[in-house]
Design brief:
The chain is an alpha/beta fold. Helices cover 28% and strands 22% of the residues. The longest helix has 16 residues. The N terminus is likely disordered. The strands form six sheets. Strands 8-9-7-10-11-6-12 form a seven-stranded parallel β-sheet, sandwiched between helices. A hairpin with an 8-residue loop joins strand 1 and strand 2. The chain has four domains: 98 residues, 3-Layer(aba) Sandwich (GIY-YIG endonuclease), CATH 3.40.1440; 154 residues, Rossmann fold, CATH 3.40.50; 164 residues, P-loop containing nucleotide triphosphate hydrolases (Rossmann fold, 3-Layer(aba) Sandwich), CATH 3.40.50; 63 residues, Alpha-Beta Plaits. The protein binds a DNA duplex through strand 1, strand 2 and strand 3.
Length: 586
DNA sequence: CGGACAAGCTGA
DNA sequence: CAGCTTGTCCGG
């Protein structure tokens, strides 16, 4: 018989965050003593929450549970999860993009399939020497930096410079780019894990981690440097809320880890120039990495029906060069045509063109009559959208060239046609890999677009085109047809000098108070008015609430610190609310 | 999120 | 007032 009660051994209590959108609270659970060694920060567990079992992350270890709550034990240990530093980063990102919970970030940071077995750390076959290019290696000595490399430059030396420091995290714009980078690292003797499939090997350390946007959330115990390739590329921003940007997460992760972060781009965004120190090559080398640019002033051409074809273009399409023509026809009617008989889909009642709002029916633009998705002439159900602009121009171009011109669509299931002459929207720039000439038939469509980032986006298209044709010493050409030959985008392309755009942009954004001169957010949805009112009522100094315009409120502040703190302090009203920090289309 | 339970609406 | 819908709250 015991004289004294033995003190209960201090049971381990962990705080978990359920993997459910809509639950923002954390809950505390007991860890059975036999599992104590298997539970760490980030571990994926299952717990009984009220009437059901849910997946969850351990977000805090050894916590003081609230009083008067009977703790339940964890039901199951499911697998490994993000490390503590990544969980901290997720909490920061929740604040930075005004999300309700860090759950979306933790999901991105977690392996796709449960990881239960430990991988062994990677071992390098031989060390990677520092780059002998002083500009490149030097970019890793200051932090953070944005390294401006022209479109034709090879980024592999940058990746190798990062690998010379230890385990690098390399963020790419596409799966194909990350595969290319991984192959080159592998050849250099660096074991490489591709995110997310290589999650477990990344978490074991000793490897380079390569991937697209989501890979910035990879768990890496010995992270030594971060490289973001093509920082200016819009694929780096998530389009669904929270609209987080790879550049900002990479910079914050590097800052927290105390490691260098190098952003590369031929035309760094103003955001990057604000946050990082600019490192450039000498002027001549940079210029040589941009292609030869021909500017055709459309004001000087006679404005007949072929106004889209300058004499320079006519000469090129009649040569034996492989020419890709780009024509964006924003705001023009998209028509539907039968995939088999090519007849235009029209209203069977009034003959006007029809739209396809969903998958299952057609609606007349004029009389509103609806009918099933069937071709009225041949009965086929395969209707395709035709870009009226491109199709018309394709016919005209064919007449000019005297040979076939193929249309390149954005449709990934269509094969990329192998023809000397092609035409398409900007999607063609993503689908074709090489050309002798890329011709922008109407660059003014891009230059005059109303989005505040239009100029950067236009130059980004020229960069894409430049990659298809190569640098100045090759035979490639980019042809810009424009009525604004003095526009800074045209001049920047012509001289291979992106500073012309960033300087003009900085002035414009300062004058009109657009990012990154201010931090901006947009609020819409049924609860937007209530949210805006509360925010206004809170009277945060220097936080401006303007609107609503088309049901959208615009909130600006001098910086994200003030903007996000203000957004975070608002108690969310009930009802649907869309809150976008750093909106791009404005 | 999804279940529990409470407060409102309808029909006899 | 039963029977159902709609809303609000809560979970460890």
């Amino acid at each position: 018989m015991k004289l004294f009660e033995e003190p209960a051994p201090e049971a381990l209590v962990v705080r978990v965050l359920p993997d459910q959108t809509g639950i923002t609270k954390t809950f505390d659970y007991l860890v059975p003593p036999e599992w104590a060694g298997r539970v760490a920060l980030g571990t994926r567990v299952r717990v009984q929450l009220g009437p059901r079992r849910v997946g969850a992350w351990v977000v805090d270890i050894d916590v003081e549970p609230p009083e008067g709550v009977a703790l339940k034990p964890i039901a199951k240990i499911s697998g490994q999860g993000p490390s503590g530093d990544v969980i901290g980063l997720a909490h920061w990102a929740r604040w930075r993009w005004a999300a309700r919970t860090p759950v979306p970030f933790l999901r991105t940071a977690s392996p796709e399939r449960m990881v239960t077995t430990l991988s062994s750390p990677g071992v390098r076959r031989h060390p990677v020497p520092p780059s002998d290019d002083d500009v490149i290696q030097g970019a890793f000595r200051r932090r953070p930096t944005v390294l401006r490399l022209p479109p034709a430059a090879d980024v592999i030396p940058v990746v190798q410079a990062a690998a010379s420091l230890g385990d690098p995290l390399v963020l790419c714009t596409s799966r194909s780019q990350s595969e290319r980078v991984a192959r080159r690292l592998d050849r250099a003797g660096v074991p490489t894990a591709h995110h997310p499939d290589g999650w477990g090997r990344a978490a074991a350390g000793g490897v380079a981690v390569v991937g697209t946007r989501a890979a910035v959330w990879a768990t890496m115990p010995d992270l030594a440097a971060i490289v973001v390739l093509d920082e200016h590329d819009e694929v780096h921003q998530e389009e669904r809320t929270p609209t987080w940007h790879l550049r900002d997460v990479a910079l914050e992760r590097a800052r927290r880890a105390g490691v260098p972060c190098v952003l590369t781009s031929p035309m760094p965004s103003l955001e990057a120039l604000e946050a990082a120190e600019l490192v450039t090559l000498d002027r001549a080398t940079e210029r040589d990495g941009w292609p030869r640019v021909i500017v055709a002033d459309r004001r000087e051409e006679d404005l007949g029906r072929n106004a889209l074809f300058s004499p320079a273009l006519a000469r090129l399409v009649r040569s034996d060069a492989r020419v890709v023509c780009i024509l964006n026809q924003k705001g023009r009617a998209v028509l539907l045509a039968c995939g088999s008989c090519r007849d235009l889909a029209r209203c069977t009642r009034c003959d006007a063109s029809v739209q396809r709002p969903g998958d299952d029916h057609l609606v007349c633009r004029r009389c509103g009559d609806t009918r099933p998705v069937v071709c009225a002439s041949c009965g086929s159900t395969q209707l395709k959208t035709v870009r009226m602009g491109v199709s018309r121009v394709r016919d005209d171009l064919e007449a000019l060239a005297g040979e076939p011109v193929v249309e390149v669509t954005a449709d990934r299931s269509d094969p990329v046609p192998d023809a000397r002459l092609a035409i398409g929207t900007e999607a063609a720039l993503h689908r074709i890999e090489r050309a002798d000439v890329v011709a922008f038939l109407d660059l003014d469509q891009e230059l005059l677009a109303t989005r505040y980032r239009a100029a950067e986006q236009a130059l980004a298209l020229v960069v894409r085109a430049a990659r298809l044709v190569g640098g100045r010493h090759g035979s490639g050409r980019v042809l810009l047809q424009t009525r604004m030959p003095d526009h800074e985008v045209v001049q920047a392309a012509l001289h291979g000098d992106p500073t012309l755009v960033s300087e003009a942009e900085r002035i414009r954004r300062t004058d009109f108070r657009f990012p990154p001169v201010v931090a901006m957010a947009e609020v819409s949805g049924e609860a937007a008015d209530a949210f805006a009112e509360q925010l206004r009522g809170a009277g945060h100094p220097q936080v401006d609430v303007v609107g609503p315009v088309d049901g959208r409120w615009r909130i600006t502040a001098p910086d994200h610190e003030r903007l996000c703190n203000a957004l975070d302090a608002v108690e969310r009203p009930p009802g649907r609310l869309r809150l976008v920090v750093d909106p791009t289309r404005s």
